[in-house]
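Good morning C.,

I know you're traveling, so I'll keep this short. The sequence:
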Amino acid sequence: MLVARAGETAYALLRSDILDWSLEPGTVLAELELSARLGISRTPVREALARLVADGLAEPLGGRGLIVAPVSAENVVELFELRRLLEAEAAGLAARRRDPEPFRALRDEFRDVAPLLDDPDPARRAYYDLVTRFDDAVDRAVGNPFLVSALDGVRTHLVRIRRLSHDNPERLLEAAREHLLIVEAIADGDAQLAQDATRVHLHRSLRSTLASLAALDEAHPLNVPRPATTTRPATNPRHTPDSRTTPMRRTAR
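The tokens, ready to paste straight into the viewer:
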């Protein structure tokens, strides 16, 4: 039981560090070093690493251990191809099946989004919390657990590229306006407009993400194997929240 909880702790912390780039793409995930850093034995660390591989957040390094999975223009494009299919379908279904009241409330929030984008918090948590609540409302309206599960899998990976938007307030404001159009279409029950607006939003998001990724890679080459960096003190697994409560579940929008 204690080993299982320690494994959950290790997974939650490592997943969070990967998603917020405390562990950058290409960082070596050395089992022994991580065990010492987290203050737990190697067995739960090994279990956590296996789960991260299954999530696609870590991958083998030529038979010499694991690294944090790369973030490249190619895999970003591939991810957006899937995202476009899933999210456009979800938006259309939500417009057909929705209770309009939650989307009318979200519409009012997106209309008054400027203060959230002016927040000095560099992670823009208040804005992304609104986006998360939009995602949750769509998921509930869709009422299709298979589609929702597929969306969650995509969103896990997209969370990692969210940081590329943090330093581009103009793009965040554009994205908020795009979200407003999607929300209004769903609230009005206009499935075609909801789908079209979603596709436009994702097209612009992809273009912005690729430009930001290229600039970041030029300034600080990504995906180059590098030693793990100690980003957290040793942790007592008995007092660490479950992985389902880790921050930033949703994606860059």
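Safe travels,
E.
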